[in-house]
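Morning run. Coffee first, then this:
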Amino acid sequence: MILNKDKALKIADFLLQIKAVKLNPSDPFTWSSGMKSPIYCDNRKTLSFPSIRTAIRQTFSEQIKNQYETVDVIAGVATGGIAIGALVAEEMGLPFIYVRSSAKGHGLQNMIEGEYHSGQRVVVIEDLISTGGSSLKAVEALREAKCNVLGLTAIFSYGFKIAEENFENAKCPYFTLSNYDMLIEQAAKENYVSEKDLASLKDWKNNPQNWNQ
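And here it is:
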């Protein structure tokens, strides 16, 4: 879900400017799953651009405040959500924790790092949502720790239907600062892609598994 289209287009423009998102339908990327894709996203690049990371931090903070009446803790999802989550927590003056992809194999064997308490209202920060699997694993860990997860928010989502279904099944509300539809709209407007490329990009969104075969 997008809360503000104008801001979503602006965030999309930032991602395109710094090549945090790369679009190349004619020479597709291969994801770790083996799936061919015309898009590759690395939102960690936003951290290298002070003005852009500030805009992202401030947009997160503003939209979280508008969406939730009271938030006690910001939680980042390892690894992509840690840095931006810490920046958002700093912007909002809130404690920060982060959730590992799996528990440590030594020491206290924590999956959640930082100070938190049962019943605290938590908003989870991600950099990217694909299917939602890793994000929801973090949500589940927080729930098992008796935290009250209000929802999850991310910089960008591919907008896959499977992600919507997974979040709905987990009863976890979520929103993103921008998404694939906003991205390709902005890419077309700023001539990052041709009309032919735009058609191919839309085809991928509709049928990613069988695209370009």
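The first strand starts at residue 21 and ends at 23. Good start to the day.
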